Amino acid sequence: MSRRSMGSAFAALTLAVASAAAGMTSASATPDPGPGSRPTATTSFTKYVALGDSYSAGPLIPTNSTWCFRSTNNYPAWLATDLGLYYKAGAFNDVSCSSADTTNLTQSQPIPTPDAPQGTAAPQANALKSDTDLVTLGMGGNDYSVFGSLVGTCPGLRDSDPTGAPCQAHFTVNGVDTLKASLVKTEKNLEGNIDTIHKRSPKATVVLVGYPRLVPPSGYCPDQVPFAEGDYAWADSINRALNTAVSTAAKNKGALFVDTYGPALGHDACAGSAAWVNGQYSNVLKAAAYHPLAAGMRAESKLIYAALTGIKTG
Questions:
Q1: Per-residue model confidence as pLDDT tens digits over 135-151
Q2: Where does the record place the SGNH hydrolase-type esterase domain (predicted)?
Q3: Catalytic (active-site) positions
């Protein structure tokens, strides 16, 4: 979601849930490994930095540790746990922040409710050090307000043409899909981000994490995703085009890309109890609207872990 739309959404949300969010905050909160033993990594990492936007931070997934709405049960925390780094001092630094776009790798980010005296989050690249050997980057969806435009505009246009694709028509100007056109620039922005990471942390394995699917390839669930029926296929095409931009940037700059869209088949926002992504209603004990659920974060961490180590977990 864009900085502007995400910022206003979280500012309003904060007023409603400040006491609940404060009650959930805990400096000692850690991922719950659940039953069974943790996998043993065959690739050794010692210093892991997680960079990203809200799809990395995990807004409203308990427990949120900062006003960046950064959950202690997001995929970076789970990945760090599986790699044996979560409990080691100085081994894991998650600076992902809701509303971040690619500029916030090197520029400070205004945040709705400050976890810094100035009401800003520091540039995420400040966390990168010369001895950092693993970096995950989950950004791109907020550039040029692509995600925020999608989820912020489409529900309001549904009634104008419930079976058509009014949102697609809205963002098509002179035959050009403006959201898709902006993703060409997003790809270049991500390439610049990778260059920055390599410069600051030349020894690091760099992983770009894709975005999971929001809607199914067929079917319709207006109670969860209140888009016009014809806009489902278009929204999915935006989702895929965004992932293409991320994966192409990774390929062009020698980074690893982890696909979370393909494995999310059957786990979209319409999938009920099998969903990895929340629908239209934010829940302070579950997840922000249109954002990953705890199950999705855990699944993504396993995909990244497998890509890094060759070990697949259940």
A1: 999 999 999 999 999 99
A2: 50-299
A3: 54, 291
